[in-house]
Amino acid sequence: MAEPKKLFIKTYGCQMNVYDSERMAEAMGGAGYVETDTADDADMILLNTCHIREKAAEKVYSELGRFRELKDVKPDLKIGVAGCVAQAEGEEIMRRQPLVDLVVGPQSYHRLPQMEAKTREGQKALDTDFPLDDKFDTLRTRAKAKRGPTAFLTVQEGCDKFCAFCVVPYTRGAEVSRPADRILEEARELVDRGVREITLLGQNVNAYHGAGADGDLTLAQLIWQLDKIDGLARIRFTTSHPNDMAEDLIEAHGTCDKLMPYLHLPVQSGSDKILKRMNRSHTADSYLRLIERIRAARPDILMSGDFIVGFPEETEEDFQATMDLIEEVNYGYAYSFKYSTRPGTPAAERPQVDEDVKSDRLQRLQALITRQQRAAQEAMVGRIVNVLFEKPGRFEWQMVGKSDYLHAVHVTESDIQSGDILPVKIVGSSANSLSGEVLRQAAE
Ligand code: SAH
Ligand code: SF4
Ligand code: F3S
Fold this sequence. Notes:
Layout: E1 5-11, H1 15-29, E2 33-35, E3 44-49, H2 54-65, H3 68-73, E4 78-82, H4 83-96, E5 102-104, H5 112-120, E6 125-127, H6 135-138, E7 150-154, E8 156-157, H7 168-171, E9 176-177, H8 180-192, E10 197-201, E11 211-212, E12 215-216, H9 219-227, E13 234-238, H10 247-255, E14 262-264, H11 272-277, H12 284-297, E15 302-309, H13 316-329, E16 333-338, H14 355-378, E17 384-392, E18 398-403, E19 408-412, E20 421-429, E21 434-438
Parallel strand pairs: 1-2, 1-3, 3-4, 4-5, 5-6, 7-10, 10-13, 14-15, 15-16, 19-21
Antiparallel strand pairs: 8-9, 11-12, 17-18, 17-20, 18-19, 20-21
S-adenosyl-L-homocysteine binds at residues 52-53, 159, 165-166, 168, 203-204, 239, 241, 266, 268, 306, 308, 337, 339-340, 342.
């Protein structure tokens, strides 16, 4: 038998790209490829790219340039670009970087094996269609090998919200939900392979409305179906939009034991003027009231958010409104970004905020968030939390995992396996993680 060819995938961007990379590796498995973790010995290199901010997109071109030498010594090496930059700039990539053999958008990657075959015949292959055939269906033959205890599972993709700064509706297309039975089947397969925690993914995951046996299911209804799978211990979902936070989903946070007490709910800004210009269709106040309802259902829930500073026409006063909102919510975690002009989006045409003003605001916002984050971590010291252990740490006998609240926790113990969920008493808090001691119970 011929030796398998090697595929190296480098993934940028969001969790959905991580999920997509796994599926692409599986699709190429069917075409005789195994994955490798270095570019040096690869027969094919795939960059799974992100277009969300200018920096992310530019990184792709500098990374591609580095493969020139590899291709010089190995002319058969195939280089492909996948993901959101592929979707947005497909033909330009081919023009700008002749090293590239293949460009595939996020909705066409089930066609990768045929595209790879075409490149082996010396042709270039480009596919950035939004085909009618369902990529998830085409990819249904899943690998059966054992895997780590946590997994992503895409349930919804695309976005119809058109926030004025964002490329996602253009790169991922219109909002589509997968049918519930396919998701449940995939979840069961993952659990059979050792997965104990599933994070449901979607650009607007809480807008999920996939077909079920008796009509469409809401995300909460899907979660309750997943809740019945034996062996699945934890369910998370991301990313949610404030406008789609339905009552049954809020309730599930209080009543579904497998649904973890962590919610990523981006608000972007605390100024109603800016929110309106962002086309976010919620106000600072409606967001705050929503969080009150979520906390009424699950008082210990850890909130996380996304913020953009320096959106066109953001004044110091608008920025202060964002800082006030952060003070009021008290986040356990947050991602924050300087506004990045994206060609083709409505905000790109508007008067821009100076770069140094953006930098200054980002610094102040991040200082506040870091303070809140540290306080949330320190509040865990002395508490007993469940930890799902994932892998060995840097030191001998060390194991690391995640608490229900998604804090990284490490312990030093000899007999913990990846996939164990154990109660841990938190004894210390450092910059990015907690340390603890496993409590052994008679039943364990
Ligand atoms: N669908 C998700 C994720 C969108 S991208 C959501 O609605 O939250 C993730 C984050 O990137 C966004 O929440 C936003 O904070 C940030 N982002 C998107 N476009 C951006 C831009 N042009 N400049 C800076 N940050 C941006
Ligand atoms: Fe982008 Fe807004 Fe859609 Fe999120 S909701 S993906 S920020 S357009
Ligand atoms: Fe980036 Fe595309 Fe995800 S632009 S954030 S990889 S949806």
